[in-house]
Amino acid sequence: MRPGGWIEIQEFAGHIRSDDDSLRGSELVRFWDKTSEALELIGFQYRIAESEMGRLLARAGYTNITVRSIKVPIGTWPRVCPAFYVGRLTLTLCGLQNKTLRLCGMYMRANISNYTLAIATKPLRKLGLSLEEAQTFAARAVEDMDRPGAHPYLEFQFWLGQKPVG
Predict the structure, then answer these.
(1) Is the pLDDT of residue 89 over 70?
(2) Phi, psi at residue 57, to the nearest 5°?
(3) Where would I find the H helices in the chain?
(4) SS3 for 113?
(5) Residue 9: how many CB atoms within 10 A of its CB?
């Protein structure tokens, strides 16, 4: 990279969140936390975007490090497109904004659903769960994702850093 050039790294933050406490005590959040714990046992830092990325960029010599986060829903629960969930470009597409957000949510729901089933087969077993227990845990998390009134989302982070000029 040339001096003065920029790097951009895009990554999901490692926590499933909800702004309205609709996930308090949910199987989905419990599953996500246990998954992170299991992955750390096998040496995989799942929550690196929100915990380490800035330090890693600085250690690599980048300056002017910034991060921007957007909220990406999991599922089709958004009915209205609040400004804090999408970027400016999406907001300018007035007629398509709700459809776009719900489409992203549907895509995220499919990804998270597939992920939970895949992660149950090996990493969760590192926590002492049998294969059947891990699969049942994953199935409950997926069901919880679709619970009426649940509003889960993941933060998508955009990290920028500039290579020093001289």
Answers:
(1) no
(2) -65, -45
(3) 27-41, 48-51, 53-59, 88-92, 97-121, 131-145
(4) helix
(5) 14
